[in-house]
Amino acid sequence: MAISLNRRALAWLTPGWSLWGLGLMLVLGAHSVPLTAQPLDAIVAVVNDNVVVQSELEREIALVIPQLNQRGTAVPPLTQLRKQVLDRLILKQLQQQRAKELGIQVDEATLEEALQGIASRNGLSLDELKVTLETGGVRFEDFREDTRSQILSSRLQSQEVVRKIQVSEPEVDRFLARESSRLIEREQVRLQHILIALPENPSPAQIEQAENKAKRLVARLRGGADFAEVAVSESDGRNALEGGDLGWFEMGAVPSLVSNLAYTLAEGEISEPLRSPSGFHIIRMREIKAATPEDVTQTRARHILVRTNEIVSDADARQRLLQLRERIINGEDFATLARANSDDTGSALKGGELGWVDPGDTVPEFEQQMQALAVGATSEPFKSPFGWHILQVEERRQQSASEDLLRVKAREALQRRKAEEATEEWLRQLRDEAYVEIRLDQDSWSQTP
Predict the structure, then answer these.
(1) Burial letters 347-364, b for 16+ CB under 10 A, else e
(2) Closest CA to 241 of 288, 199, 194
(3) 251 vs 285: CA distance, rounded Å
(4) In this structure, are residues 285 and 265 in contact, taking their beta carbons and an 8 Å threshold?
(5) How many domains does the chain have?
(6) Which residues constitute the domain of residue 396?
(7) Are residues 192 and 264 in the same domain?
(8) Are 303 and 351 in the same domain?
(9) Containing H/E element for 295?
(10) 10 Å Cβ neighbour count for 142?
(11) Is residue 18's pLDDT more than 50?
C-alpha cells in the first residue's frame, strides 16, 4: 500500500537548499529502495558546532528516491541528488540549532498525536503505518524523528517569522483596488518552478551564462520535455526534488515575483525566464481552480477581558473569570458584568459587544474559541495575547460573498504572501550567518549509495 502525505513546498526563491515542510510527503511504492545498515560515519559537513555524517546523508537519500519513483520522475544523477539532499540536511541542522537556542521543543504527546493523524489520514492504525513504512524500507524511528523535526521547524518559523506578520487596512485597500476583479476569476493556482541560481554579486558573464541556460530549458520544456524531470535534474531551487512543485496558492498569496503570471498563464503554459537577485526563474501553470461564489459566516459576540500584570497573575485572572462565568450561567446579565469588570474599555462601554465579526478579524486563539461555541453559550476562560477572556456567541449569519468576503480573502492572502517571503529571507539569513564546511569530496558525489 502506498502512503501519500501531502506536502507543501514552502520555499523557492533561493538556490540550493531544500526543506521538509510540516506536511511531509513520503511515498513508498513498488520501486522503493531498501535501506540497509551501513557503517558510514564519516563527517560530510560541519554546521556551526554540529556535523552531518555519511549515514545521515544516505538515509535521507533512501527517503527521497521512492518519492521520485512514485511520481514517475526520473532519479537525477547521484552527484546532483547528493548535493541537494546534503543541502536539505544542513538547513535542517541550522533550524534545530536555532530552536534549541530559543528553548523550542516537541513533546512526546504532540509527536504521538501527529503520527496518529498521519496514520488516520492514510486509513491506517499506527501499527499498520509502522509495518507499511518498514516494508517499504524506511525505519519507523527515522520517520518518527523526521516528523518531530518538521513540527520543530514549523514552530520555530511561526515564532521567528509568521507571528510577526501584520497586514494593515490600507494594505488591504490597495490590494483590493488592484486585484479584486481578478480574484473573482481565479481562486487558486498550482505552480511549478525551476531556478537557475546566480552567486552573490555575479559578473556579467555569469548572468549571461545563467540566462542562456534558462532560455535553453524553456525551449526544451516548450518542446515537450517533462517539467518535473527537468526540475529534478537542473533546478537549483529548494523544491527541485519535488519536481519543482510549489503546491497550491490562494490568489494574492502567490510570491510577488510571479503574481502577475498567476493571473495570465494558461494551464500547462511555460513562462519566459524571470530575473531576481537569486537567479532566473521558470514558472509553469500546472492547474487552475476557478473562483466560485461563497458565503462567509459572521458571528456576533461579546466578551469580558481580564489583563494580567505584576499584581494579577494568570491564575488570578482565570479564577476571576470562572466566577463571572458562573454568575452569567446563573442568570446575571452579561452586559452589566462586562461594563463593571472588563479591561477592554472600548467594548466594556457597550456591554462587551464586539458586533459582527468576520473570519480573520480576531487573533487565532479568540477565533478558535468563538467558532467552537454554540449560539447562546459562554466559553470557559481562555488566554490570548491580550489577556484572559470569556466570550458569548449571540448570533450567527451567512453573509453573501461581497466586499466583506473579499476583504477577508485579501487579508489572508497578504498574510500568506508576507509570511512566505519573510520566511525565505529568514532562511537565507540563517544560512548566510552560519559556518558551513562541506567535507564530502567531489569524487564521493557520484558514488553509488
Answers:
(1) bbeebbbbeebbbbbbee
(2) 194
(3) 13
(4) yes
(5) 2
(6) 295-400
(7) yes
(8) yes
(9) strand 295-306
(10) 17
(11) no
